[in-house]
Specification:
Shape: rod-shaped
Helix content: 25-40%
Structural class: alpha+beta
Strand content: 25-35%
Radius of gyration: 50 Å
Protein name: M23 family metallopeptidase
Number of domains: 3
CATH topology of the largest domain: Glucose Permease (Domain IIA)
Keywords: Membrane, Transmembrane, Transmembrane helix
């Protein structure tokens, strides 16, 4: 049979008196239970304290990250605002250039957007993204418009370089464009160019940029150079004493291409100069 009581003898050091404690079994069990509960409570409190400290540390990190992201959003919003202002200026300049160049409004042009700077909060991030998308679309519209304007200006520059301008040689006009009495037959005949008299060997210059399409001796014309300038324009330089360019060679306005002579059907040294548009002779005086 299990003991119901326990006796504990307590003998203080240096004393002969003995103290006896009688503990019942249920008392020991109660004390043990209390100790277990206290240990468990202490362990739980310790764990909660550690977890709370970790939560506070994570909260501090989150607050710091939140602050940093908020600053980044502020900076992004400011940059977006500045970019929108620049786009407004670009749109105004684009419109001015189009008016000067007589170009129509770009097909994909979008209306200008603006307004005061707004501070985005966490709930406005999607709105900020929408504004960024709008700016991207505006930038793309400006890019397409600039490409169109650049293409137009390049065409204008090319057309200007291809249109004949200036005198092909230094001299004086000995025969103009139009109907005249032929110096050989005496009959009325169309003179499709202009004769510029000069000394033999006087330099002959191209009056526009282009590619040499002919450099040969032709009956009537004598030594002939023909330059194709594009856009339907061609120029003829005839009766030369010497041709200085070859077929396929690219020449520029003012470049020396031949020398004045009297080859072919000619009564004296001069350059017969023609300007043709789509193979129709035009009065060269209108291009001097």
């Amino acid at each position: 049979m299990a003991a119901r009581k326990f006796t504990v003898l307590v003998i203080p050091e240096g004393s002969h008196q003995v103290r006896r404690l009688v503990l019942r079994l249920w008392t020991l069990r109660l004390v043990a239970a209390v100790l277990v509960v206290l240990c468990g409570a202490l362990g739980y409190l310790s764990w909660e304290l550690m977890r709370t400290r970790v939560d506070y540390a994570e909260l501090a990190q989150l607050r710091q990250a939140n602050f940093a992201q908020d600053r980044e959003l502020q900076v992004l919003a400011q940059r977006l605002h500045d970019l929108r202002q620049e786009l407004v200026v670009l749109a105004q300049n684009d419109a001015k250039v189009r008016v000067m160049a007589k170009l129509t409004k770009p097909r994909n042009d979008s209306p200008g957007v603006g307004g005061p700077l707004e501070s985005p909060g966490w709930g406005e991030v999607s709105d900020l993204q929408r504004q960024i998308d709008q700016v991207r679309a505006a930038i793309e519209a400006r890019r397409l418009s600039q490409e169109e304007i650049q293409g137009f200006l390049n065409d204008q520059r090319s057309f200007s370089a291809a249109k004949p301008s200036g005198w092909p040689a230094r001299g004086w006009v000995s025969s103009g464009f139009g109907m005249r009495n032929s110096p050989f037959s005496g009959r009325r005949k169309m003179h499709e160019g202009m004769d510029i008299a000069a000394r033999t060997g006087t330099p002959i210059h191209a009056t526009a940029d282009g590619i040499v399409s002919r450099s040969e001796t032709v009956a009537g014309y004598g030594k002939l150079v023909v330059i194709d300038h594009g856009y339907g324009y061609q120029t003829y330089y005839a009766h030369n004493s010497r041709n200085l360019v070859r077929v396929g060679e690219r020449v520029q306005r003012g470049q020396k291409i031949a020398e004045v002579g009297s080859t072919g059907s000619s009564t004296g040294p001069h350059v017969h100069y023609e300007v043709r548009l789509n193979n129709v002779p035009l009065n060269p005086r209108n291009f001097l």
